[in-house]
Amino acid sequence: MKQSMMLIPTLRETPSDADIKSHQLLLRAGFIRQNASGVYSYLPLAKKVLQKIETIVREEMERAGAVELLMPALQQAELWQESGRWYTYGSELMRLNDRHDRKFALGATHEEVITSLVRDEVKSYKRLPLSLYQIQNKFRDEKRPRFGLLRGREFIMKDAYSFHASQESLDEVYEKMFQAYSNIFSRCGLNFRAVIADSGAMGGKDTHEFMVLSDVGEDTIAYSDESNYAANIEMAPVVATYHKSEEDLVSLEKVETVGKKSIQEVSEYLNVDETKCLKSLLFKVDEKYVLVVVRGDHEVNDVKLKNYYDAGSVELASPEETKLVLGCSIGSIGPVATKSEEVEVIADQAVSSIINGVCGANEEDFHFTGVNPGRDFSVEQFLDLRFIQEGDPSPDGIGKIVFAKGIEVGHVFKLGTRYSEAMNATFLDENGRSQPMIMGCYGIGVSRTLAAVAEQFNDENGLIWPTNLSPYEAHVIPINAKKEDQRLLADRIYSLLQENNISVLYDDRDERPGVKFADSDLMGLPVRITVGKKASEDIVEIKIRKTGETLEVNFEKLVETISTFVVK
């Protein structure tokens, strides 16, 4: 393609609202443009990359036995009401009414639509298992869209769904999908990890996220420094052991701590280590109040709390609720002499080993010292309720935990019967009995994958596309197209590469060489072919974008040389 016919609006300056490399470079290199907050147009270069990612996805989905279809983005509210998510999904679901005042939602995900479709068309175990997928735009009303394509309100997603007559069948397909995802992200050249994850609003158990390692990632990965163990920090279990000190128990004493609210303030004021402090937080778990106690240097993991209670929602009690239930402010909460009998007290395992600790006294400006679990307060259960920390033992027993930031690009779920039971999606088994279909769900952020590749593959001059994802494999640049020998040789190269199925972008613009070279570096095509002073000798310069290596090549050897750098 000739560059004069393309829409590639490159920018010399970095847009002020672009915070991360991928967002900056995709804007500067003319791949995307913002239409509204979190809503982008994919310009021709980006569209070509997306098509290549989608091709890889389709090949691996077909290899895993999934069949493509396309479902509507506009979804009836009745389907979401059947599953119960119309009321629980939250404000991210974009809802609207048509002219007849019927309620709809723009598809944030398609569990309801696919379940209703298969429910109506599949009646027998003989039609199962069945795996279906689509590649489609999704809509989520993000409160704070940011980081370009990494967190938007409209994005491109591949979502697949599998239906089964048995758990064993689901397990088998789940493993195939897991392998397919590993293949997809490996073929995209990404440095990623598959991590144990929480299913969130999707429901289901046994889930994995595929995380691209990146300092700008919004998720924290906890992984072993000696094994393949990796999990989202929300899901990593703590297997640390705690030992009680040998000191004698002292009496419980209430002390004045005017203005001291945080663990750090209290520990410094009373000259005690944070590990001897008790941090108490009041949560509202569905409609029930739960007081969660952890060690002062630990943080409550609300996902573990939610999973323990199998709750629909978990949130911190508001200051007003805390005052009403416990009679004090948030900074004064403690488990000793909790006034309300309606409050259940649970604690992290580390709390059971604390001797002569410190906690809030449920009274403004006072704390208790000499606090001992069991003697001074009762606990319903000691559980794993905290976030894992760096240096903790790896849950698989091999090595220590270290942290890394990650960008989620894929997620696989074992949904079980969460949707089929709610929506009456059943089949007749071998004995003629009606059974709920067992489901799996598998999502890939296609546009997010594009951004993740851009985040990992760049330098100070621009993007550096892997050859199998690059919008074009070669970039032909005549230094001065007004010179006949350069123009004619560039034309011959353009035709030669096309004849040999090497995709090529031909910079035929009337621009200065410096502008052409800068734009070429920004776009990041794998091979640049510069036609210059030696055009009359049929000699050109090749530059490899990834390494910066340059070499002079005769026209006759051009295809052979380029082919060594272009991976088909």
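(ticket continues) Second input and output from the same batch:
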Amino acid sequence: MVTGLWAVLVAVPGQLAGWVVDQIVLVAGLDRAVAVWPVVALVTVLLVGAPTLALALIPRSPAIRATGRAWLAGTLVLGALTLLRALPPVHHEAYLAALAATAVVVAVVLDRLTHRRGSVAPGRDGAAAPGDAPAASAPAPGSATGDAAGRGGATAPDGPDDGVAPAGGPGGRLGPVTLLALAAGLASLLPWVWVGALGGASETLLAGLAAAALGTLAGVLLGPAFWAAFAVGTPPRPARLVLVGGLVAGVTLALLGAGAGQSGAQLPALLLLPPLGFVLGTLEAGARHAGRPAGRGPVRWLVGLALVGPLAFTDPEEVTALLATTRDVPFWVAVATGVAFAVAVLLAVGYGVLLARSRARAPRRGLAGLTAAALLAAVVVVYAVPGQPGLHGERLLVVLREQADLTGIPAGAPGRAGRDARAAEVYRRLVATAERTQGDLRRELGRLRLQPTPYYLVNAIETDGGPAVRAWLAGRPEVARVLVSQRLRPLPAAAPPARGTVPAPTGPTWNVSLIGADRVWSELGVTGAGVVVGSSDSGVDGRHPALAAGFRGGDDSWYDPWEHRRTPADRGGHGTHTVGSAVGRNGIGVAPGASWVGCVNLDRNLGSPARYLDCLQFMLAPFPPGGDPLTDGRPQRAPDVLTNSWGCPPVEGCDPGALRPATAALAAAGILVVAAAGNTGPYCGSIADPPAPYPDVLTVGAVDRARQLTRFSSRGPAAGGAAKPDVVAPGAGVPSAYPGGGYATLDGTSMATPQVAGVVALMWSANPALVGDLDRTRRILADTATPAGSPADAPCGGARNLVGAGLVDAYAAVRAARAADLG
């Protein structure tokens, strides 16, 4: 048992360590470490394989050899399956297909090896070798032989694939032991159908196939030859089969579970599969007491159904630290795993009690069948009522080759009139291009019932579809590329809404004073009146006392593409905080006299390319509730400056150029896009996720109270060597509004970004002729910025890629804006 403990102590921490590395890399914004899982596989095979190989080869008792062979095979299986995690998580269907195929191939190979060992002579001690067809599988004299025995006929010995034991009915019907295993598997599945949700059609089908293949593989690892080694005595002693055989089977299943799923999905299997070894031991003991071994059928059903839960009802990309701060997917996966573990333990105990009370009588097939049927009905009811029925897979964003030509748009008159004219012309060209180029593809997708949604800010279409549809779309001549547009699966219950707990400030907050915004109010009499700031974020608490008066109002100032709420609201709090820093009253906002409009592009702290486009389109041309963005947009109602404290990393489906046409179009319309640099410092080149690296975006880094660059603030250069960020602002310990009427103090470039948007609002309020003049506005911000501290050795190509032009100075910028000659 020391070897088994060693195997578990190597495999489990290895899997946890691999997942933690994945999460660290994800949170840090680094490139995915593809070599992590091959290294984990190699280390596990080397450390566990050697002692298990010794057990398999040393000529001791058949039980020890069977133990070594099972654990060695399990270790090799774990190594092979772990290698599959080199596939990117975003291609989950490809991973599941590879998992199913690999499991089947390994099962066939191991099955042939088992049959080859079964043809050799018995061991030296006269007992059957682990691969032999054991004499213990024959019915004991005077013992029951299952259902057939009750009808006067003896049953034939089980073959290696027999799933109708010990009471296999005529015509290959499922026997009582297999039905009990089926019932146990359905019981293990119940927690997952309650808290989980299925992905897309192809994803769900492949997950089911992968679970079935892994169940088949488990049937080979824990087949009749394995249990025969622990079936000592006539009839066999149940305690040895249940306790010793079950323990060995549990370790084997732990090794199998460690490889069953993409990074994150295997963690539940590590906990819920091992107790099932004792359930299998109990079923085997009952079958052998009834006259014949159980065969592989019970193992297949039990393990396969148990693995359907984590493979089909969770998305491994959502088992992430990014969602671990609230009661989100990681919490519910932990709940399902804990309940499934408890179910497995109760099954082991319950079946053990039934075995003890049966006194070697065969389980009744009718009762076992009713139990399985009742649990199947329970699974259906739980899935349909408290569960999350339906398919919730990712969608595809099809980016077309032709993008709108926005060159030669007249500058028009200075100020808002000219900006509105440019915005209208940009909107017209974008929509015309989308309508002209998307027609054939949209009709084809509609004919296939793939629910296409057109976009114009980037000429693209979002649609349903799995790998086959993606391959078909990628081959069409009008398509440039196809991105995965992530969609979070629903939860059984929404996380508690965020609430502010910090008291309201009694005057201008430290960050507002640091950049001189309070001096702008008191000395220059400018508060941002007449300027509209647009926020795309988690939402806004529209009833917050610091924000309610600033909402622009009307039927085109709020859009929620996730939940379609008609009034401003915010579950997460991030968006309320950022809007507060831009335009909040009570001393928290840089431009408290400005108005705001809002859009929800983050759901539970994650977004997708399509949702980001939904909000950016709304900012270019707002539309009323239920309106069509392509026909009902109102570019004359576009906000003046946009604050964007988000980025679209590859895990959400974006590639580096995914949103490039969108920001270019907004710039052409005279709408200034201000974006957070990101919180992936101190690594050089970490300003990578759209839209922060784009040249037409004003990118903002973060400093602390001492005007020093924060460690978390992302650094440049951006792709192609472009210098980023453009400026920095306070981003460490920033107080602002939070849902529920309270306040909170947060860190991040997310907190710095809205302050710069607020400074722009002050500038344009002081000189309305500057509205829409993005080049001159950016120059004034850069020319009036003050020095900000950065590392002495100035890595990343110099201070320009650390703090940009420096710390934004609201007072100096507004004075310069007032004095600007726009002739």
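Agent notes: Residues 119-172 have pLDDT under 50 and may be disordered. The chain has three domains: 91-135+160-389, 395-485, 510-819. Closing as not reproducible unless the customer responds.
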